[in-house]
Model the fold of this input.
Amino acid sequence: MLWSALSLTLGYNATLVTLGATLLGIATGISGTFLYLRKNALISDAISHATLPGLGAAFLLMTGVGLDGRNLIGLLGGSAISAALGLMIVTWLTTKTRLSQDAAIGSVLSVFFAFGVVLLTVIQALPAGRQAGLETFLLGSTAGMLFNDAVLILVLGAITTSILVLFRRPIILVSFDSTYAQTLGISPQKTDYLVLAVALAVTVIGMKIAGLILIVALLIIAPVAARFWSEKSDTIILISAIFGGLSGYLGTAISATAPGLPTGPIIVLCSFVLFLVSFLLAPRRGVLAAARSFWVFQRTVHMTQGLLSIAQNQPIYEPKTKRILQRRGFIRADGVATQAGRALAAKTLLNERRWSFWRNKMQQTGDLDEPIVYSLVSIETKLTHDQIESIDRGLSEEQQERV
Amino acid sequence: MGSDFVALSLPPLLIGLCASMACALPGNFLILRKQALIGDAISHVVLPGIVVAFLFTGQVSTWPMMIGAAGAAILAVLLIELIRRVGRIESGAAMGVIFTSMFAAGVLLLEQSDTSQVHLDVEHALFGNLESLIWLDAEGWASLFQIKALAGLPVELLRMATVLLAVSAFVYIFWRPLALICFDEPYARTRGIAATALGFALVTLTAIAAVAAFDAVGSIIVIAMIICPPATARLMVNSLRSQVIYSQVLAFMATVLGYMFAGYVPLWLGFSNTLSAAGMIASMSGVFLACAALFGPHRRRNI
Done:
């Protein structure tokens, strides 16, 4: 069952929905990354909640003029209008009043959503409202989706993804360095608007699949997960697109295999698994990598301090230092240094002297600007041969002066 | 305005008032500390807590659910901090990751477990069941003085009133340190105020108010009331003391007017159905905020 869902052989509608969710995931991954890198991640929460009154109003309006209130194009159009209104109010409150952005987002999302709920109770009171099924937009549902709706989602998902691919240059530039982008003639503000418009579009399109409460997760989780893997904005955007697409694809496929597996939550949990893997395993920024580099750093400090003590014939008291040195065969169990230990100790001492001479010189000339932990790295790896020679000359002059 | 009002409308109205005011009070400090969205996050994460509590006990009973909800809220706060510090992710995004994932897990658990026998679904959690908190023993205003009838009041009323009292006491006792950590946290620290602990206490207290209100009135009121009345008050006055007082008055008015517009106005206009009271109360607080944002005397930033 799962295999046939994954290999897109579970029927025509299911295939279309899965493809649509994948494209949506890609589009949310890209636009969400941009929002995240511009420190705007939670604005998507306001967008998604602000769709509800538009949804209800569109249903009421269409029923009022005698059309079928469940027409997906009409419902999505109404949602898009009220989401855009909510977005404008958030921007207006943030720039024109003294409320901070989080208060603006929170008030818009709660009030719009609340008004949407009021409209839903109006709809439920109507004779036509009982089968409206608008609740499915809250948590998303793909079961029993109409063929036309599936095609619509697929087409809209393809359009938004291609808009993002088309405008990838300005988007990447602005999210990497908005000032630099401006000097190239790209307006950060216009790019912001473009991405917000796309985010709004994918929110509205994705509502039917993922539900309006959870669509925000797609815009946040994949970008945050992707952030762990790279420091370059174009790579982050690419990874986020892959993560988003993957969670849309896997989530829809898994949810199609059994009844009680709602699509929205499954998609979100798929992207959360990707987040968890990134959080733990990503090189450099991941938890394991950070723990490992901390451990290596600690060991290096212990080693260096211990070896310096040996070189200066001082006893080592720190038990951990002793243990590390003993394990590597630099000291014996009684604390006396071995041949190898003495050789490395002398080398470490020379490294330390060279570094401290260089540091003093740099401090005198005022060229020292970053506090590097010297003597933990070999000087040959950082300075040129000529520099080291001049340091050695300086060191021997110092020694002659002292004599 | 006779016995029907006392039996059917007075208890929900009072519970709504206590919930709104209990949420708006800590909201004053949260919006100044730029933590307004905490209420949003909490009201999403309590769902898995409630569902897990239900799966353990097999019934919809108050205390296990409150404990489950509070546990989920604390777990969420810890996870957000973990991701923010260990993963070096900005706090808004960390919050977004955790609250959506936990909410998704809650919905999935709910769909997977057999809850058809009990009144537990996502919509109930979102919209609350304010209208159903009625007082069957009441026969008129006189019942307010009859001990036997009073015993039949919905338990939510006593609980919400207690929470409101507790929140008020906290704000009253810690008024000065709370004000200091909102406006100048570094200075507060130099004065020996444990700002981190106090900030955590504020969030915890908000979580308690939110969880208690959530059960009775749904998460919409909680999110709206934590943010809207304090934000409205902030656009109208300039001192923290007046802001807190205004926010309480606004929460009161939004609840009364919202309840009236939901429960009575449609009937007066000739419709046969009432509207969602929770939704209307929150919408009303939004109307107040809109007025203040357009006309409030202190709406602009001080330059």
